[in-house]
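Colleagues,

Please find the record for the two-part complex below.
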Amino acid sequence: MTTMTSSSSTASALPVRRSAARRMWRSLYRAKWPLLALAILTVLILAAAFGPLLAPHDPNRQDIIARLKPPFSSAHRGHVYFVLGTDGLGRDVLARLLYGARISLIVGLVSVFVGGVIGTMLGTLAGYFGGWIDDTLMRIADIQLAFPFILLAIIFMLVLGPGMMNLILVLGIGQWVTYARIARGQTMLQREKEYIEAARALGQKTPGILFSGILPNILSPLVIIGSFNIASVILSEAALSFLGLGVPTTTPTWGGMLAESRDQLLAGRWWLAVFPGVAIMLTVLSFNLLGDWFRDFLDPRLANEN
Amino acid sequence: MIEAGAATPLLEVNSLCKHFPTGKGLFSRNAPVVKAVEDVSFHVGAGEIVGLVGESGSGKTTIGRSVLRLVEPTSGSVRFDGREITTLNESELRGLRKEMQIVFQDPFASLNPRMTVEQILTQALRIHEPKRKDLREVVVSLLERVGLSSAHLARYPHEFSGGQRQRIGIARAVSLRPRFLVADEPVSALDVSVQAQVVNLLQDLQREMQLSMLFIAHDLSVVEYISDRVIVLYLGRIMEVARGRDLYVNPRHPYTEALLSAVPVPDPTVKRNLVLLEGDIPSPLNPPSGCVFRTRCPAATELCAHEVPPLVEIAPAHFKACHHR
């Protein structure tokens, strides 16, 4: 457990903490599973980044003759080949999957981030200050919870107009309450601890207490909830797009593909649901594994055996 | 309180009261208040260690916190080095933090579990002397001063024992070289075997740094060992104040007598006159009228129910608040 200087250039013989990146890598390497998750995510992110270059076809080119082809089949006398089959309009599933990765990943990640940051900030403030700040924020949260999310999203999207940025904003705002409630409860627990009083006695200002005192101690559950929420956000995006309130229906997204596949599933066209489903599952699984690892990494009691 | 011969005291507390409102809501105006501290006056001279003893619920901790304005006093005055501090604003108060520090009771709750020892010990310096470059050296010398070493810099609080954590807490408290320290039951949470080490450490630091200290405890033997003077509290009020030795040899207040006779003596052959108290400490929500101790006092009379006994000097530097004896 002794921390030995690894490759520190300073001449002092004092033990030095490894740089954050190095400690992260070592911890990842030891945990194995999160490493796999990181590999999967890297592939997905590369697919999102370079999808248009890799895609064998235009994701929106309809081909009525080649509609509903199962995977590994060809059409037009063997001239066109579909690795993952085609959908009801004869569009290539692989191409749509690759193009869809971009929107789904961006919407999933960014809106969880937006909702997480807003919710954590407001929840921490409510928990720390209490009083009217707490009352006001929590009543707003209650009011928001009283509305069904879809209804709220419809109102927002009608006001803001469709588009990816607004979609991210709406999906983010839809989640803030979850984070705010957890952050508030955790903050109230931490606020009474003597180390917070010690920080005040040392003369630390309130922002410093919130950021360096409380935040690191309430982050674990928030990270876990966030990693779970990525999945539900990807699906919510599909629901909103299905209603015409998200991205245009012609833009391929994983959730949208899943939504379109419903009618075909009973007819045995499994590939329409399975491939986007697997993509979402892999994304969520990877984020959960990484989130789990990250929580442990943040906790000095569990992680730093290095 | 009347000056007991010392020069201008570093800390002077006058008629300090702290009432906590209970419950809140529509009728908060009429909500009962817990009178945690009621009309407490004392002083701590430069370089002096004053012990503060009392049962749990007697207001010891509240006094310690009020003196540092970690809780806001309801009324009364606290003067530090001649300067009234109950009216200071946030930034003036921050300047005062360099001079007055606190060591906490629970060494497991008082260190941020997500900070390394180095971060904990540089916290104060980073706030008050942000331009300072020699933080590492300062921290190492602090650690060595409290009996730890530079090998502990990168460790987290959970890797230490209770005694070691308390040493870290003490190092943090003295990192700004304060003049005054509140030690809030610093050894109550520790094993008896390490209590003495921590008390000795505090005593050594006090001598080296010319610290004044308010030493809060419920363990009379610890307080006797370290304190120059001892204040005995009961239900938020001062019962007796005396030099440590005087108090132990010649307690004058019935409550002090009872407390002292409850201290175990490590000699089974000694026969003692035990003064046993009956019942529990009354609720500070509804304290007895007159002398708060009268409900459990063997000497209580009609007078005690009507008049609050004043704290009077009965011998040089020996004060008690009792109508009798």
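The radius of gyration of chain B is 21 Å.

Comments are welcome before we finalize the supplementary table.
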